[in-house]
Structures are given as C-alpha cells and as structure tokens.
Design goal:
alpha+beta; 9-stranded mixed β-sheet; 4-stranded mixed β-sheet
Length: 552
C-alpha cells in the first residue's frame, strides 16, 4: 500500500508518464526484493512478418504479424501497443494505438476471425489475437502466439518512404512486457503489382545504405554492384534458387554479367534508377526483362542451379568462344537469349558437310517442347524432330580425287534453319510431342540412354557437351562406308533416328560403298527392302547424285 502523499505524487503526473515510472525494487525497511515490481521482459523467440519475395515488408490492405513469446505460465498479455513512426509527415508524429487481445481456441478460429473482419474504413483497423499456449519441459513457462492484424485504409500510405512498426505486449503485472520492432516497411495506397516492385527496390536499396529521399528521384544513380545485389534478392525471392544471377560458375559468367550491364545501360559502374525500374518492373515493351529471366529459371531450375544454363550470353560471344576453344562438333552451350530472355538457346558446334568447316548454330528450344528440366534433358538426348544437337560420328570431307557425294545445293543458313525449326516445333506440338515418351529402340540398352544423368549430359562442366550417342546403334549398320553413312545422315536429318538406322542397316547389308552408290536405281532400293517413304526420298537424292556423274 502507498501513502496518500505517494498517491498524490503519482496521480499528479501526466497519464503517459506513469508507465515510465519505476516502482521500488526493495520494500521500505527490508532488504528483500519484491518480485511483483521487478521489470521482466519476456523474449520473442519467433517472429513472422509478411515479406514480399522473402525480403520486403510491404503493407497493403491486409497485413498480419505473428509473435511467439516465452512467458510465465498463466501469464497472458491483455493489450498490445502498436506505434508507427517515420521521418516524414504524417508519421513524424508517432501513430499509437492500444489493442485489446482476443483469445482464440485454435489457429483455425484465428484464421476465420481475421478473414471475416476485413472491413476497410477511413481509419486503420487493428485486431489482436492470442492462440492457445504450448508448454515446454519447464512447466513454469509457456510459449504463446500473438497475432496482429491490420486492415489499412487505402489513403493511409507512406509515399514510398519507410516506416517502422513497434509492438509491445502488456500484462496484468505492469512490469512484465515483450517488445519487437518490425523491418523497415512501405505502406502502399495502390496494390498494383508495379508498386510492389517499386517498394521492393526502395527497401532493398535502403538496406544497402541509400537515402530513401534521394532514390525516390527517377534520375538517381546507384552503383553497379548494388544493382546486382538488388536483382539477386529479387531473383532468389521469386525462384527460391540457391544460385544467384551474380554467381561465378564458369568462364562465361563474366559475359553473362556484361549482358546484364548492357541491358540496363550501365555507364562507368553506375546505373540510373529509371533503368533499374525498367529492367525490374516498368518495362514499356511488355514484361520486364527480369521477370522473363525468372520465368526461364523457374522452368529449368535444376539446369540453372547446376550451371547447365550458363546465363544470358550474346550469340556472337558464344560463337567466338566455341570456335576459338576448338570444341568438337556436337559441343553446345545452353544460354538465355539476350534479345529474348524468355527462351533458352542451344548454341552448338556443327560442321558443314560440303566444306568440312566448323560453324556455330543457334537453336531456340521452345517451352512447348521442353516445359521443364526433365523434358529438356530428354529433348537434348533424343529429339525425334531435330538432329542438330547430335555430334557427327564422321565428319564428311570432300575427297581430293573423286566427286563429292553431297548434293550440290548450298548448305542451309541460320535464318533458314530457324524457320525450319519453328515449323518442326509447331508440327511436333500439334502431334502431341510434349506428351509422348522416349522413342522405342531395338537396342536393349537404349532405355538407359534415354534418361541420362546430369553428369552424362555434361551439366557439371563449364561448357556442357552434347551427349555422345552410343556406338551400339551404329553397329546395327555393320561396316557401312563412312561417306555413304554421312550422305544418308544428311538426307535423313529431318526424319527420326529410327528411320535413319533402318535405312543405314539396309545399305550396310547390301555392301553399298561410295563407288557403287551412284549406280543404284529404284529396283535396287526395292530389292534392298527399303520402305516406300524412305525409298522416295532416296530416289530424289540419287537423281541429284546421278546428275553429277553425267558426262559433260
């Protein structure tokens, strides 16, 4: 009990000062402490706030905070005070509210109550809930979960400036409490996705030490390394991948970063905020580039994390790299296209069958054909519609003393190949290629070849190599003449591997060589047992070959 003088002393103070006044730690005329009056802060052992892309606290119309507090048994907070403050109007004067705590019987009851009362008013609506406690090994303690729900009026915003939320739970014992500060937050008056992205960039740069007022201007400039840090945060939050955009995984990684620098027009290690927002969330050409890149990473998550997809590389760079490093025919690099970052491209070393000169071909792999990692590996290993990814088993060179067996037409150009590839992909998609499984093969070991591991696919090396076809399939063709086999491969490149193997086996059994090939006619092909479809194609090819042997 306090004396009347003490009562007049305390009640003479302003109301908000009473809570700040410390009670006596020791009773008068006694050396023993009085526990009821000792300050006691309960620890918040778990804290949850709704983070956009696992990083930014963005407060829109409905926001929830959760706290798990270790407190004395049977001690429950009866009110929770919330303070909202910032360094700008109107939050330069702290917005404070005290919320009565409602007790729920279960988490399901809390979910029902919090969703049922999402009423948007002209003023903020706060609710506080307490969930049933959990008792640990120490029966004198309990872990209680407190939930704060804010229904924010639309006009209540922070104009892209950060605010801080402070929470303090109060008990019947006036000296007992728990407290927690939130991460810096931005309150939006418009919940459109582009404003979420803008708030994310602002909070990420705030965490890197930038002044929020300075970066609110469109002509503001940030460092290149900070731009990369922001995009790394965004990409990891959007995809959940461990590998970041900035990770150095191979020799080509620096060219990947150069492509990113070119996309945002990085000048002398500086990037304007206007270019950052164009790249992340405000593209005038449709979907922002970063969102397109993230869509590819989400589609081929394993290939991205293992380094099989090396990054965003220009076609000219990968061409120079593959040719200067003298990679063998069939070697390829999977990359995200610079001009169309929503697709991946396989740039492979090929050999012109007329001249024997190596060149690099760029094949865009449609997401309809390869919608995920598994389909991508299957496509690269055994595509039934395109053989450009397969290494040539024998490089066809023009004999110095004899006439070439290759047709006289000019070899396809990259533009022609792109048009042809698109037609094949559309045709395959209509025929249900996406749903079809691996092709049947007479080879008993082919099942293992159809689903190669990441190591077999070369996904663990800096420049992925094309899977080498098993020589067993070619043994079915016997000792087929190398030039004849290359000639057949060229003419059957648009057909399935099964058709090519069947025809090659017939030619091997008939002992057809380069010297006798031009002598064949329709009756010979029929006698060899070649089916009608391939026989028609061979007749056209033989007519071209016969014209080269006509006396002039």
């Amino acid at each position: 009990h306090m004396s009347g003088m003490e009562d007049s002393f305390f009640f003479g103070l302003p109301p908000h000062k009473i809570e700040d006044t410390s009670f006596l730690d020791v009773l008068p005329n006694s050396g023993q402490s009085y526990k009821q009056f000792e300050p006691q802060m309960y620890p918040v052992i778990h804290y949850y706030e709704q983070l956009y892309l696992e990083h930014a606290l963005i407060v829109a119309t409905h926001t929830v905070w959760k706290f798990m507090v270790t407190e004395d048994r049977e001690a429950f907070a009866n009110t929770i005070q919330v303070d909202v403050s910032g360094n700008f109007e109107p939050f330069n004067e702290t917005h404070s509210v005290s919320i009565a705590v409602n007790h729920c019987q279960s988490a399901e009851e809390f979910e029902s109550l919090s969703k049922a009362r999402r009423v948007i008013n002209d003023v903020p609506t706060w609710k506080a809930y307490h969930l049933p406690p959990v008792f640990g090994p120490d029966h004198n303690k309990q872990n209680s979960t407190y939930c704060i729900v804010l229904s924010k009026p639309q006009k209540w915003g922070s104009q892209m400036m950060p605010v801080t939320f402070y929470f303090r739970g109060s008990y019947s014992n006036r000296n007992a409490y728990w407290e927690k500060y939130s991460s810096p937050a931005i309150m939006l008056t418009n919940s459109a996705s582009k404003w979420y992205e803008k708030a994310f960039i602002t909070l990420a740069l705030l965490g890197l030490g930038y002044d929020p007022k300075a970066i609110s201007k469109p002509d503001a400039v940030i460092r290149w390394e900070d731009f990369i840090a922001v995009t790394d945060l965004h990409m990891v939050g959007a995809t959940g991948c461990r590998r970041k955009l900035s990770d150095n995984i191979s020799f080509l990684s620096r060219f990947h970063l150069e492509s990113l620098a070119s996309m945002v027009q990085c000048d002398d290690g500086r990037v304007t905020l206007k270019k950052v927002r164009h790249f992340c969330n405000e593209s005038s050409d449709g979907t922002p580039p970063l969102k397109l890149i993230e869509s590819v990473i989400n589609r081929y998550r394993q290939s991205w994390e293992t380094g099989a997809v090396v990054g965003i590389i220009r076609s000219g760079v990968v061409k120079q790299y593959l040719l200067e490093q003298k990679h063998p025919a069939g070697s390829f690099v999977l990359r995200i296209q610079y001009n169309s970052p929503s697709e991946i491209c396989a740039s492979s070393v090929q050999v012109n069958p007329q001249t024997g000169v190596a060149f690099v071909d760029h094949l865009t792999i449609s997401q309809h054909v390869a919608p995920d990692d598994h389909k991508l590996q299957d496509y690269l290993a055994c595509s039934p519609i395109h053989k450009i990814m397969l290494p040539m088993q024998a490089v066809c060179s023009r004999p110095a003393t004899s006439t070439s067996l290759e047709p006289s037409q000019t070899y396809r150009t990259t533009d022609q190949e792109l048009q042809r590839t698109n037609q094949l992909l559309q045709q395959a998609y209509k025929e249900g290629f996406q749903a079809s499984g691996p092709r049947d093969s007479p080879n008993p070991h082919s099942q293992a070849q159809m689903s190669p591991t990441a190591a077999d696919m070369g996904f663990v090396v800096s420049s992925p190599q094309s899977p080498v076809q098993s020589p067993v399939a070619f043994e079915q063709a016997g000792q087929l003449d190398e030039q004849v086999r290359s000639w057949l491969r060229y003419f059957f490149q648009n057909d399935s591997e099964q058709v090519f193997q069947e025809v090659a086996q017939k030619f091997a059994q008939a002992r057809v060589t380069a010297n006798s090939l031009h002598m064949l006619d329709a009756d010979d092909l029929k006698e060899m047992g070649i089916p009608l479809g391939p026989r028609k194609l061979l007749m056209r090819a033989l007519q071209q070959l016969h014209s080269q042997y006509q006396p002039r």
